[in-house]
Amino acid sequence: MEQAPEQWSTLHFSQSNPRAAARGDVSALLRRVAVSLDLLGDVQVGDITFHSEMTDGEDDLTMTVYYDREPRRR
Questions:
Q1: Residue-level pLDDT at 74
Q2: What pLDDT does 54 receive?
Q3: What is the spatial distance between Cα 18 and Cα 31, in angstroms, rounded to a whole number?
Q4: Strands 44-55 and 58-68
Q5: Which of these, 11, 25, 34, 38, is most buried using a 10 Å CB contact count?
Q6: d(Cα 63, Cα 56) in Å, to the nearest integer?
Q7: Coil, strand, or helix at residue 11?
C-alpha cells in the first residue's frame, strides 16, 4: 500500500522596494525585509529567496521569506 506524500505548509511574504529611485537598491531591500522580520517577532525562518528582474531599464528586486510562527531554535 502506497503512503500519501508528506505535506507541510509554511507562511511567507514577498517584499520589493517602492517604485522610485531606490528600486534597484539591494541594501535598502535587505533593510526593509529585516524590519518586517522584526515586526513578526520570534519566528523561525526556513528560507529566503532573492529575485532580480530588469524592468523599464532598472533592476526590480524581490525577496520572499518563508517562515513558521514557531520560535526560532537557539
A1: 65
A2: 81
A3: 13
A4: antiparallel
A5: 25
A6: 19
A7: strand
pLDDT in tens, the chain (74 residues): 788 777 778 899 999 988 776 788 999 999 999 999 999 999 999 999 999 988 777 788 999 999 998 877 76
Q: Which residues contact 73 (CB under 8 A, 6 or more apart)?
A: 44
Measured distance CA(67)–CA(12) in Å, rounded: 6
- The type of residue at 30 is L
β partners of residue 67: 11, 45
Evaluate the CA torsion angle 21, 24, 26, 32 in order and state its sign: positive
pTM to 2 decimals? 0.79
